[in-house]
Write a structure and sequence with these properties.
With 893 residues, this protein is mainly beta. It contains 5 helices and 66 strands. The chain has an 11-stranded mixed beta sheet with strand order 3-7-6-5-10-9-8-4-1-2-11, with no helix packed on it. Strands 45, 46, 49, 50, 52, 55 and 57 form a 7-stranded antiparallel beta sheet that branches. A 6-stranded antiparallel beta sheet has the order 47-48-51-56-53-54, with no helix packed on it. Residues 139-179, 380-393, 764-801 and 851-855 have low confidence and may be disordered.
Amino acid sequence: MESNTINVVVVEGKKIEKTIALHQGQKSGPVTIDAVDNGKYILAEDGTGLAPENITVTHVGDDLYISLEGDDKDHPDLIIRDYYLNEGELVGKGEDGSYYNYVSSQGQDSAVLSAGSTEPLALGDDSIPGLGEGLIAENDDHTLLWALLGLGALAVAGGAIALSNRHDDHHSSTQSAPLPLPVTVNSGTLDAITDNVGSITGAIVDKGVTDDNKPTITGSGVTPGDTVYILDTDNTVIGTTSAGLDGKWSFTPDTPLAEGVHDVKVVVVDMNGNQSDLSNDIHIIVDTIAPGAAENITVEGDTNTPQITGDAEANSVVIISDNGTEIGSAQVDGDGKWSFTPTTPLDDGDHDITTVVVDEAGNVSPKSIDVPFAIDPDNGGDGGDGGDGGDGTEVPEAATNVEVTNDAGDSVAGKDTSDNTPNISGDAAPGTVVIISNNGTEIGSAQVDENGKWNFTPTEPLAEGDQDITTVVEAADGSTSAPGEDVIFTVDTVAPAAAANLDLEDNFGDVKGPIAENDTTDDSSPVLSGTAEPDAIVTVSDNGNVIGSAQVDAEGNWTFKPTTALEDGAHSLTTVVEDAAGNQSLPSDAIDFTVDTSANPEPSVGFEDFENAAVHDFDSIGDSVHLDSGITLTLINGPVVGEGLSSDLTSITPKGVFLFTPGFGTQDLQILENTDLQVSFDSPTSSVSFDTWGNSFDGSTVTYYDANGVVLKEMDIPKQADYQTVPYTAPAGESIASMIIHTSPGAGNNVLTRFDNIKFGPDESLTATHDVTTDVQTLAQHFSQESVTGFDFAALSNAHQGIVAVHGHELLNIDELLSHASHNMFIDDGKAQVAITGDMDSHVEFDAASLSQAQDWSSEGQVTSGGMVYDVYQQHDSHFELLIQHGLDVQHA
């Protein structure tokens, strides 16, 4: 059965502090609120305002846990924090419209429960007189208020419902009663909404624009003493007042109206709770954001009546001043263009044109840049040059290097951040003052020190959503600069929901498909998938230990496959979602299951050096040979006899081996250019390596396949001057059934590439620890790649290292980390890289002495490798990149 939404309304005295929806039956975690002194917590069904009849409560420390009917008490729907440190009551409305306390079967309410006890509660028999009357809604969207007052949403639109608590019994009754005579309550007339601030004041016309977000709302024609409820868009109550003896009333909001469109109307309630119809409404548009200063101002014409033009906010008015005195105004057209010619000729001599912009709401912009020019009586004057500020001595330069950083010191420009009081800093002329604005509204100022530096931290937290920080520099004489560069970012302090729609899939063996709760699987690397907030990161833990993470795509989907096989035994997978701002969700519900691979076949093991293999030429497509080591070689594509070849064929041969490649013994496998040769294993294996020499052209590859022909990995076989080893280890839970070696076209001279020493099986020597390119996201190269003293990149490139595991609290030294670095290991950008991984309880601290130029370390994004998301750190002018597993607790100087 579909459950109803239950709301909790927190009331302190007669003031509604907040309303929060509880989604019964969902597994998104409990709603947690802080207790208020002597608070009443009203539980109300959405749409009716009626209370759920039965709830279960538990006394946990100083907190009260509440579970709705039918929900597990171990997974509460609501937690009231510090409930037992503040006197409070759980309250609900009965079917008779009266309010009652929740009590146990012994008549005790939640305030007297003993610590650790759990009790079922239901509405009591003694009503609470007057609770639903005179409630005040502030600073919130209290769409429930009408239901609490007995004025359901339908009643606002038409019929009348009584407000008074007229019954002693909250249970429904089947007894008939005489119908009351209809009572007519006069809504009167909503007369005016008046702007009282700024350059434009007075009554606001219907659909008019105002810069007053606390306008005065007035009406008339109401019965003296009746209560007037003022409604905004969607019938949200923004306040109440009473009609005077003359039937008139007036109301000014305490809380500013939000930016945008408002639909204001009233409903009137008499002393008996009878309600009127809705009054007429007045639409207004609140706009308190000042327009930008006029730009591109030019003065044209060698005359005392020059033409002055520029750009400004469309449909605004530009006020033009000369030498500080207003000389006229101009209407801006729909394209943002304006033009002005003085009606009174200007005097000969020096002139200085400035402007301010006034929008339709009356908001006034900052003053524009000065445009100086001179009128010479001998030649009729010379026009201004478009606002360059003359010789630059009168107008200060705009602030530069403006940066917004979070508590960790990382730039948030163009990003999401959970820090709603970030630090704002930059450079400007010493001794000036920088005025900081956000989304067009001034939020503070900062004094520039003697070194030209300034910084500012907002005293009031920034609101949720998009932010646009701009600055203006003000000199001691009051002149101001042009606006500085914008810094745009988003504040997000709301934790994402836990991952949902979790699905664990077995993709190994004869039995495949979803793994049910408490099921057993032979797949040691099952695939976990689900949905979460788009572009977030999902961290996966097994039995409480982090085993990897996954990036959520733009559609909200993600998939994770362990890179290390899960051991046989019991497992419990949970996830935590972290959004782009760093907010983390509650853990998801666990998926418990057991891994049992005891019946799985062991991977095949073998070695082929071609010393005992018969000499064989592959002279036709499909030609195949099986070797005693357990591999089969098949020519898939390439040059064969009859295509101009006489002696150079793809072959098992001793020809030339001892002369060129002593490490290859007396025989090897030689593959002609532009050829595909398949190497199949008698039974699947886990790791493969082979030696190669003589590849002189780009484009040669090796591709690994599973038993179903699905590609596991494609790798380049690079050009080399000497032979090298090419290793590959299949991901956990996967196995290699075959590989195809492709040689690129040469120079038309029947170029051969030599292969030998093919090893296969779970031999530790075959593990390719540097094979971590799966799903790598390309990062831009931010710094130069000049040589760095002390780095042996040739040695690093073959180090086959690169991952350092930490457990618990460890102090790391950069010099020690460098010994583990590998060239181009994670990101192909020419740098030496090392990654740090750990469990969820690990704490990493860097030795400050090892971090030269520590202030130059910066975060450069993220990279996903081998199923793990890493945060990438770079140092200016360094060839070293540090990758730290996302989510580890890290401190650095």
